[in-house]
Each structure stands twice: as structure tokens, then as C-alpha cells.
Amino acid sequence: TRVLVLNGPNLGRLGVREPEVYGSATLADLERAASGWGAALDLEVEVRQTDDEAEIIGWIHEAVDARAHVVLNPAAFTHYSYALRDAAAQITTAGLLLVEVHLSNPAAREEFRHVSVVGPVATGTIAGFGFDSYRLGLEAIAVRLRG
Ligand code: DQA
Q1: Domain architecture of the chain: domains with CATH
Q2: Where is the active site (predicted)?
């Protein structure tokens, strides 16, 4: 079973960016960790990151067409990208799973982070557990697929 783990803007800066919020580990560390978790769960995991809204939307279309499930950290797009939301809606309406994840807990941060325009079209959301948000997201997919 294929799972795309898609990351939005500024997540390529993990390790350098606001380490007090996002930790000192890098995107490469996340890639390694996620592949390991995927292998243990019998999921074929591919991690990608982009700062480009069009690119992440294209990857979501690709997931729908390839019938891959998605773990998505939309980063700041979370809070305002209706284009990403409309793309994301196609995942769940296609009968695929979409787990929205966040490293931090946006509900505990600035007001503008309290709204997710992606959340309403996701299967579910996991936030606030650092890299473990991704691990839990992959586990949620594996558990749901096992029925
Ligand atoms: C984030 C939370 C967002 O509010 C922020 O814009 C990010 C990262 C997180 O993983 O905690 O870039 O999605």
C-alpha cells in the first residue's frame, strides 16, 4: 500500500527554523524515520516537501490517480489555501485516507493558526506530537486499512 507523506512550505527548513517550536531534527531525519515506520507497518512511504502550492496540489492529484493514501502537513497553507483544500477533498471522496498532521499544536498557538481549511476534508488530524504526529498518522492509516 502506497502512502505519500507531503509537506508544505518551510518544512524543508526543519532543524534550522524556529527549533524551539519545531525541534532540531531535519527533513532528512523525518524521511529516514518515516520510511522505517512505513516498513514496519507494511506501507510503502514516500516523503516529499515543497514550498510551491501548485506542486503540492499536483502531488495530491497524483495520489488520487495512483490510489495512494496521503499524510499531509500543509504547513501555512493549512490556514488559507482553498485550492489545497479542494485538491485534498478529492482524496477522501475517492475513498482514500487523508491524515492531516502538524508538528506543533496549532490550536495552542496564534489565532490565525486556529483555523484549518484542510481539516474538514481530512479523514482525521493529528497535531502536537512532533515527528510522532507522522508516525501516528501512518499508524492510523494502517489500522484503518486493517479494518
Ligand atoms: C505546522 C503548523 C503551521 O501553522 C505552520 O505554518 C507550519 C508548520 C506544524 O507542523 O506545526 O509551517 O503545520
Answers
A1: 2-146 (3.40.50.9100)
A2: 22 (proton acceptor), 102 (proton donor)
